[in-house]
Structure formats: C-alpha cells, structure tokens
Amino acid sequence: LRLRQERFRISAEVEGDTAAPEGLGEVWSVPVVLTLGTPDGDRTQRVLLEAVEQDVQLDVVPDRVLVNAGGHGFYRVRYAASLGAALVGHGIGHLDPLERYGLIDDAFASVLSGAVSAAEFLDLARAYADEADVSVWDRLGGALDELARVLDDPAVDDDARDAYRVTVRALIGPALRRLGLEPADAEDDRTRELRGTLLRLAALVGGDDAAVAHARAVHTAALAAGDGEEAGDPALVAAAAVVVAVTGDEADYEAFLARSKAAPTPQDERRALFALARFRDEALLDRTLASVLTDIRTQDGPYVVRVALTNREHGPRAWAFVARHWDVLVERFPSNSVVRMLEGITALTGEAVAADVRAFLAEHPVPQGAKQVAQHLERQQAGVALRRREATPLAASLT
C-alpha cells in the first residue's frame, strides 16, 4: 500500500492558501490506523507515515482498505479510485458511524479543493441510502445543499436542476420511508432528529411535494395545539417550520410574525423569528430586514441577517441591505455579533456578489473579528471556485 501526504488546501483557487504557515513545514509524522478487510475478517495495522510518500508492507492481502480506522486521526483521506471503489463496493454499512462520517466529509472536502469532482461525490453519496445516523445525514445533507446552490448558477438549465432533485429524492426517499413520517413512542432523540433532517432535505433539496405537504400538516397541527404536549415532536416541528417558511406565502409570513411576538417559549420565538428571513418573496424578506433596524431585538438581529444572507433566492439582496445600512447595523448590534452575522456571506457564491462582499469588507474591516472574517471570506472564495469549476460539468453529468 502506498501512502502519500500533502498539506490540505480548501481550494487551489483561494488567495493566500498557497504556502504552509511559517514553521509548519510540508512533511509530518502521521500515525495512520488501517483496517484491512479480508474474507476471514478485518485486521488492524498501525503505520507511522514519515515521508511525503511511503510504501507499506501489509500484514495480509486485503480486498479493501480503510484509512483512519476509527475516525480519530486529525487528517483527511483521499483514496485512489480503485481503493475507493473496493471500499464502497463492499458496502459502507460495516463501517462505524464516525468512519462513515469521515468518509463523506473527506470526500466533500476533496470536492471543494478540486481534487474530486461533484459527480464522483454523488456516486459516493448514493452508497449512503441505508444510512441511519443523524450526524452522518447532517453532513451529507449539507453537501447536497451546497451542490444544489452550485446548480443555481445561470449557466445551468432547469432540466439539470430537476435531474438533481430526482437524484436527491432517490437518495433520501428510502431512508425517510424506512423511518416513517411519524415518531414512535420508543424512539430516542437522535432518531427523531433524523426524521426532521430527512424531511427538510427531501422537501427543500429534493423538491419532494409530498414532504412539503407533510411538513405543512405538521406545522399547522403544531400551531393549532399551542404549547402543549400535543404540539408534536420538537425535531419534526422545527424542520417543518423551516420548510413552510421557505415554501410559504404571505399568510404564512404573518403567522410566523405573530408567533414571534407571542411565542410560549424563547426557543419557539427564535424559530419563528428566523423563519421570517427564509421566505422566497423578496417583499417579505425586505420587511424582515427592515424590522432588524427597528423592532427585532439587537441580540437577535445579527442572526436574522445571517439567515437572510443564506436565502437561496435573495441572499444577494440581503447583502445589499447589509452594505447599505452597515454603519447603523454596526452601531446597533453587539460588537462581537457582527462577525457572526457575516458568517452568512459563505453562502454568497455568485461571482458578482462575492466580489462586492470582498471589496466592501476590505474597506470596512471588523477589528474585533478580523481572523473570523478572513475565514468567512476564504470559505466564500472556495464556494465561488466550486461553482465556477463544477456548475457545468455537474449539470452535464445529470442529464
């Protein structure tokens, strides 16, 4: 087995990410744990990688190899095509949840860096149809959502977007049907969280009309029940609120607005408040943003703006609001919350708006969060590069 190490870069196209920090070097001593799969069972082998490239004599002849067994190593893994195919071909169900998480997380990191294509990532994602761990689904769902945003590029046609939604539904649908739409009495909290995650992904990334309808039914029942036990499962109610906000109309907006002012708990209040920033209608989003300057509490305002910046339809409009009212927002919000508000810029991956963001923040620095802002900009730039690099090839692979 040949192991090779290199410094991970979030993207080859990110400015300032071309050299290792001073004193860090390019070669490390890396403890690597391998699982060697054979017909007679799995074997563990430990290796110390001390060179850029190192050949390892294996204890057995395996039919598959898992690198970073147990998922505890502080490094990412990228497999040669044949090794990756052998590992996935055996079925990933034999891996621990942390190993499955690491496999998908490392793969998407490789997509961001440009080492793996988005189409190759989707091939791996299809192997997760039987996944039952909510943490793994959260990571996979985040990647699927980011690829959906890549396909928002104007160069991509509706046929490709429709094909992507079909792909996502085919991945999520079996898991959601297997779990069922209604919680069972004996379920643990993570299973309930998984149901909410799958419902939200099916509705918003997969465009599943049945999932949207079920979310609306859950939301309506929760509103009718008030704050009693019968209001529904908290994880499902929270997911349903997001779906209704993203797909809702003015009547839904007014209901969330009223709820935000008369919610039975602080958690319910914030859920309704953040929902106001998710609507696709630009006039409704404008109302929400205007309220940040007047009605919404200063401790909540930055986070409402952050959600608005991630709005798939009107994120750039939210950024224009931030730039236009910058001085007022900085004066109004707690100083340590401005950088948290700006976390939303990572979702703004269109070339024009990203350039506007970079230019504006260069002229309007945030001294109390300079490092975090730089990280937000770096992550945004990686997203811009991903969209530029993958929008057309990913669309072509889907149609």
Q: How would you briefly describe this protein structure?
A:
With 399 residues, the protein is mostly helical.
Describe this structure in words.
The protein has 399 residues and is mainly α. It folds into 3 domains: 128 residues, Immunoglobulin-like (Sandwich); 118 residues, no CATH class; 123 residues, Zincin-like fold (Alpha Horseshoe). The protein is built from 17 helices and 5 strands. The strands form 2 sheets. Strands 3-2-5 form a 3-stranded antiparallel β-sheet. Strands 1-4 form a two-stranded antiparallel ribbon. The radius of gyration is 23 Å and the shape is globular.
Strand order of the largest sheet: 3-2-5
Q: How many domains is the backbone divided into?
A: 3
**Low-confidence spans:** none
CATH topology of the largest domain: Immunoglobulin-like
Can you write the helix and strand succession as a string? EEEEEHHHHHHHHHHHHHHHHH
The amount of beta strand, in percent, is 5-15%
Shape: globular
The main sheet comes to: 3 strands, antiparallel
Could you estimate the helical fraction of the residues in percent? 55-70%
Per DSSP, the total helix count is 17
DSSP summary, beta strand count: 5
Q: Determine and state the CATH class of the largest domain.
A: Mainly Beta
Structural class: mainly alpha
- The separation of the N and C termini measures 37 Å
